[in-house]
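Curious: can you check?
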Amino acid sequence: MSRALGPVGEAIYAILQDATLQAAATGGVYGDVPEEPSYPFVWFELLGDEDIRGFGTGEIPEIELRVHANSLLQTASEAQNVCGYAEAVLRDATLTIDGYTQAGKVVYRNSVKLPNQTLFGVKTYEVVDIYTIWAERN
């Protein structure tokens, strides 16, 4: 198992501090769901870090990034709009990852709409954009 999730998470958090995204996500951008969020807000999660290097030495983890936008509006428009700003920052981005060199670019994969989500007892509309990141251990 790779140890890339921590450094990749720091790189993602740094790139998501974009002023335009921050203006759209007035509740903030987080590495986890805040306990008492303001809306709309963005949070992200990193899943898996399967080593895809094949033969040889070293380590090239493949990491799935999920960027969530939560809105109080009961339509997809606001959450999709916020995810659009995140996508503008992330799609084909080059990350600075401590201890790793990014292999390729951040690749957008899919978007999932999740209406009628309940978060801390509050009904929200959530849109999740899914990306893939590869990083080679230095």
Q: What stands out?
A: The helical segments are 5-15, 19-24, 77-90. The radius of gyration is 15 Å. Strands lie at 29-30, 41-51, 61-71, 100-102, 107-119, 122-137.
